[in-house]
Each structure stands twice: as C-alpha cells, then as structure tokens.
Amino acid sequence: MKKITLLSAAAVLAPAALSAAPAPAPIAAPAPLVDDEDADEPEDEWHLVEGGDVYTGTGAVLRGASILIKNGVIDEIGYDLFVPEEAERTDVSGYRVYPGLVALGATSRVTVGRFAAEDPSWAVDPLSDPDEWMYGFDDLEPTVDDEGFRSRYIDSYDPFSPYMTLALANGITACEQSGAAFKLRRDGIEGVVMNEDTTVGFSMRGSSKSNTRDAFREAARYLREMAAWQRRGEPDDEEPSSRGIDRNAVRVLRNEVRASFVAEDRLTLLAIAELAQDFGFNPIVQGAREGWIVADELGRAGSIVVLDPRARSWNDPESLYQSGSSIENAAILHAAGCQVAVRTPSSSIDTGGIAGRDLLSLNLQAGYAIRGGLSEQAALEAITIVPARILGVDHRVGSIEVGKDADLLVTRGDILHYETLVELAFVAGDIAYDKTKELFYAHIRPHEITADLEADAAAEAEANGEEEGEDGDASDDGDDD
Length: 481
Description:
Elements: H1 2-20, H2 36-40, E1 46-55, E2 61-70, E3 73-78, E4 88-91, E5 96-99, E6 101-103, H3 130-135, E7 143-144, E8 150-151, H4 162-169, E9 172-177, E10 180-183, E11 193-196, E12 199-202, H5 208-232, H6 247-253, E13 258-263, H7 266-279, E14 284-287, H8 295-300, E15 304-307, H9 329-335, E16 339-342, H10 362-371, H11 376-381, H12 385-390, E17 408-411, E18 422-427, E19 430-434, H13 449-480
Parallel strand pairs: 1-4, 1-5, 6-9, 12-13, 13-14, 14-15, 15-16
Antiparallel strand pairs: 1-2, 2-3, 5-17, 7-8, 9-10, 10-11, 17-18, 18-19
C-alpha cells in the first residue's frame, strides 16, 4: 500500500518538475564540409589560340584549328571547342602554329645573364671538351626550389637575359645546357629545369676504346650475377660485389640513362655501333660526319645521331675506303633507321658577326639538311621531338599534343624557310615573346595579331569610359540639384 502511494506522488510531481526544467537548446545544422586544399586552390587559367594552321610535329596538319590551353598545358585541339567564358583568346587566323624548337648543346649564355645568382663556371660544351663533360660537376651542391625539386642549375638562371629573348625570337623555347633541359621562361625561375643528367658520356677514341668495352663487359656480368642472386632469394647467399664496376655503364644497361659518344670518323662510329649492338643499348652519337658511310650499322644499333648538316671535310685520296662528309648525311642516316637531331656549328648566341652559324640559325640548319634529301617532316622533328627525346622531356615538349606543355610558335610561313620570323612564342601557355614588342625584329613586317588584341582592348576601354562618363554626368546633375 505504501509502494502505491509513493508511485502516485511521483506521478503527480513529474509534470511540475518537467515544466520547471529549461527548454533544451535547438540542435544546430551541421556545417558544410570545406576542403582547405580546394579553398586555397587558384582558379584555372584558360587561353585559346584559335584559327591557325596547326603543324603538330607528328605529321598532322590541322587547317584553321584551335588549341585550348589550361594552366599552361594543352587541354584540347580541334574545331568548335567548348571554351570557358573567362578564357583569353589569341586569334591567329592566317598564320601557322608550330611546336617550340629544342636546341641541343647550348652554352650558358642563353639562360645566364648579369642577374644570375651564381657564375656558371661549370658550363662545358660537350663537343669542345668531352672529357670534362663526361666526368665533371659531381662536386656541385643541388638547390631545392619551392616544389622540392633538387637542381644544381636553378641559381644560375636569369629570366631577364637578353640572349634568351633572342633565342625565343628564333623559335627556341627549350634548350640543353651541360646535360640539363631548360624551359625558356621569362616570368620567373619556377619549373625552368625540366630534367637533368639524362645522358652519360663515354669515349671510343684511341686507347679508351678497350677500356669502355671492358667497362660494359664487367657491368653486364655484374647485372647477370645480380639477377641470379635475386632469383635464388637465399638469405645466407652473399650479394655480388660491385667493386670495380663502372656505375654509369650499369645505369646505361638498366636503361636509366643514355650513353652518349662524340665521334666523327668511320672507324670510331663503327666501333660505337658494334658496342651498342653487343650490349643492347641505343647510343647517342654526336658529330657523325662520316655517319653516311656506316649508316646501316648505326641504324641497326638504334642510334640517335646529333649532327651539323653543314659540317664539311674532304675525302682522303689515299684511303681505300669512302671518307669525308656528304650533304646527304642526315638523309642517309634517317633512311637507315637512325633518329636525327640537328645542332648548329656554334652553340652560343653571337652578335659579333657570325650570323647564320650560331644557335639562332637552328631552323636554317634543318633546312640545309632538306637540301641533302631529308624530308621536311624529319627536318622538323630534328629540331623538336628528337632532341626532346634525347633530354627525356618528350612527354612535355617537342610536339603539339594534348597533355603536353603549350610551347608554341606562331609564324607567317614555313618555320624551316630562312625568311620566316617568329611572330609570337608561347611558353607554358603564356606569350613569352611578341615580335612587335621587342627591338630585334619589330620593324620587319609587323604582324597584326597584337594590333587586333590592342584594338579590342581599346574598344573595351572606350566602352567602359563612356559608361563611367554617363554615370559621372548623372552624379553631376544630382549635385546641381
């Protein structure tokens, strides 16, 4: 009975207790999830290069096509593209668009100027001093940029170098210096070094021939022993010793780097081809003045030949074999299966009177190879995609393809013609060179591309000015009232 009374009292008191308690706070709606990385991510930058005849460098020519660029990379190529409203537009109708040229063996004068942080005393021309080129630079400390890329070349890059402007004026948007691949950017140093140390130099001249062959023989033996040791997988089995093994030869046989040789005469070239075929690698041969004589052997070795089509040497009248140079050298090597890259007689930019032989004559060199029978497509590849392959950057530059850097040249005519000048040069999607805005060639047949852009900008500014004037008149009327 007592239990029932207590329960009844609790039932009577419960409503009063509940009414005295404060009302619970309303539950707030969950805050939307915000990705900090997305919040800080900059907006995409779009640029449309429209209406030009696009020579892709792969053999295709797209008449009146457009190239859509997103953040410096080619996003789409074709016709009737969907273009974001915020995209910048450059109408190049009536002009040609080519991939930027890639110059091999350039001196530091191209990218180094008076504002460089360090003196590039390490810069060596591989043809003038191959031994120093092969074995130097190990003591240089690398520099780390903002993105964590380690390079020993960044501190010597000068984006204000006038020689770089000259190089861009002649179509060069990337170059090789001492084994490093540089992108010729004028807006800073970020991303200028695309790759480095992609080749290793070896010599097959004189007594070094047997030493080089021995180095590859021992490297091949070491790799065989290492493969057998790894297959066995026995924990107590001792790993093969690498003492006395040439590390660079091992890297070549593992396809980590390319072996590069400097050679001109028939016998040395033949020795290089035999070495490459015996040990299964594809050599880079620089010079190859008598390459036309042993072209089949170089082709079977899968050689990439870097040559000067204008290099001349006389036939030896006392020799029982063919010798000397040939204007058909590049054409014969290409027909035999070699990839051919073209370089200039001088690897510098010279304003002292050797015009036509320095780095600025790269397209003329390729044109000279055409005189010897090389096809126009192979000549274009010799100064674009083939040197890009040598430098290991052909996935980024050397042709106009989706996913590659937007390094483009706009010209009136054939890039291989000696009268053709570069009107605009794009590097990573930005206009790095405009002929009408530079002193060097602005007076020669000024193009109308920039004029059209300036006219559009002036019209827009005038329209904005009229609107502001109308607003100002209205405010003046208000003051009078």
